[in-house]
Amino acid sequence: MSHETNSLVPDQLTEQQRLILVDWLIQLADDEFIIGHRDSEWLGLCPTVEEDVAFSSIAQDEVGHAAFYYELIQELEGVSADYLAFHRPAHERKNSLLVERENGDWAYTIVRHYLYDLWDQIRLDAMVESSYVPLAHGAKKMKREEYYHLIHFQHWFTRLAKCEGEARERMKHAMELVEQDLDDLLDIGVIESDLISWGILTKPPVEMRSEFYSQYKELCKDLSDGSERRIIFSKQVSKGRMGQHSPALASVLENMTEVIRFDPNAQW
Amino acid sequence: MDSQLLEEEFVKRVQSGAKIESNDWMPDGYRHLLIKLIHMHAVSEIMGVYPEKEWVPKAPNLRRKLALMAKVQDEMGHGQLLLRIVEDLAAPYGKGREELLDDLVEGKVKFHNVFHMEARTWADAGLIGWLIDGAAIINQASLLSTSYAPYARILKRICAEESFHMQHGENVILSIAMGTDKQRKMLQDSLNYWWYSLLFFFGPLETTPAAQKMLHYRIRTKTNEELRQKFLAKYVPRIWSLGLTIPDPTLHYDSKEERWYYTEPEWKTFQKIVSENKGPKSQERIALRRFAQDQHKWVRLAMTTEV
């Protein structure tokens, strides 16, 4: 049965639809929350004061998007957005491994964020006509902000990639590291076919992934040595979407919950 | 006209309320004082980022996290705006952004005492927004009438943003003050830790020769003690209304003399923190700045190289 033309109404979802939708929203929310958190760690440490200000705006946008997704889940699950953001243990989190990695150097930061944003753009494009109307509305709004993020990181990426010497070496190394996590980022897990059949996504993930990889191959041409880059993708099975994370996420969460743990009965 | 006459003319102008622009003629002494004052202000804004930035990852809910991120970003933005002013003033000496920030790492420019201190708890993070930004507004609002026009223009914007910060801090503090016993204890402890740093923030009682010169040139128009009295008048009643105890049993208002009496901070101890970067967190935070300066040289080089 095709559901493509029917909107999904929040209080008329079947149990299975609700579960699938929540799984997807958690992936989106956790991705945005953790990358925003990592971005915020850069404040005061960026290459220029101007970049500190710009990067902080991006961090705030990402955390704001996470809050939006968590609120959608709150409506479906009756669990507060704050609980979802702060109280879930690592094994319940569905962010990709890429966003939880430690910040590394500026080259890694730029490559990671640019590729993450490229994927996020493709993801948002596939949601602007979503059958789940609250999600479609949000996607349209977020796309307007992500447009500026993309320009920002594209500028950094091409500039650094086209340089000689240390910048180029660092960029190459960063790309090798990020490439290992790309399959995990682009994975959606077992809910993929349901997202399509219920019209939550309007573009098949297979096509989304091939769009991403062709854009990425195009970008690799920016590396100044002009040589054909062989992209090596990790063959490992996806982990992030299954709640399997690196120790980096555990330490983020440990840090994040310090105040909450100080007095669990308190309002802050 | 000889320089003596030019100087007299200049002083007459500023004392009658004239405003000076960056490309107007100005005495070297005036320029030096401005550079010293605004450079210190700029790097203080930047160093003020670190104590609160440490609490961004730990902010206890989404609303607080977003608010604190925005606040800390504003402080960095103030640093940037102020550095632009110092760059114009220091241009005749061949000093630019890179050198002005190197001065910080090399200990050649000082920053406010409060940013040498440790932000130990979430209450400290809130109190910084409430009382330190509150103190900063009093200081900066008094500079709005400064004779140097570019500084006055930027201060107008800074004061507007700082008053948001003060409200943000006040809101964080109110939640804690209305909270559990454990939270209230945390808040009292925070006030105890910051109180004398806050008093020192306004500077020594006596008007130093440099401060005297700033008054002469109308760079400043109020003394340290006048500003400290304003702070006490505004915040002591608010602190008391939260049921907190100010850690100074001698503190009182003399209504005849219309002034607050208080136990003075240990001037020498605090002075040493500022002049020798010997506060609990001075070196650690300067090291973060050094990281930003040194580790990213390759980035700044790449961004300025022709490709």
Question: How would you summarize the topology of this molecule?
Answer:
The complex is a heterodimer of chains A (268) and B (307).
Chain A: H1 15-41, H2 49-77, H3 81-86, H4 97-100, H5 106-125, H6 133-161, H7 166-179, H8 182-186, H9 192-197, H10 205-220, H11 247-256, H12 258-262
Helix pairs in contact in A: 1-2, 2-6, 5-6, 5-7, 5-10
Chain B: H1 3-15, H2 28-47, H3 49-53, H4 62-90, H5 97-105, H6 122-142, H7 149-177, H8 181-201, H9 209-216, H10 224-241, E1 252-254, E2 259-261, H11 267-275, H12 282-294, H13 297-304
Antiparallel strand pairs in B: 1-2
Keywords (chain A): Oxidoreductase
Enzyme class (chain A): oxidoreductase
InterPro entries (chain A): Aromatic_CoA_ox/epox, Ferritin-like, Ferritin-like_SF, PaaA_PaaC, PaaC
Describe the structure in your own words.
The complex is a heterodimer of chains A (268) and B (307). Chain A has 268 residues and is mainly α. Chain A has one domain: Ferritin, core subunit, four-helix bundle (Ferritin), CATH 1.20.1260.10. In chain A, helix 1 runs antiparallel to helix 2. The longest helix of chain A is centred in the N-terminal third of the chain and has 29 residues. Chain A starts with 14 loop residues before the first helix and ends in a 6-residue tail after the last helix. In chain B, strands 1-2 form a two-stranded antiparallel ribbon. In chain B, a hairpin with a 4-residue loop joins strand 1 and strand 2. Chain B contains 13 helices and two strands, in the order H-H-H-H-H-H-H-H-H-H-E-E-H-H-H. Chain B has a single domain, classed as Ferritin. In chain B, helix 2 runs antiparallel to helix 4 and helix 6 packs parallel to helix 8. Chain B is mostly helical and 307 residues long. Classes of the chains: A mainly alpha (268), B mainly alpha (307). At the A-B interface, helix 1, helix 2, helix 3, helix 7 and helix 11 of A face helix 3, helix 4, helix 7, helix 8 and helix 12 of B.
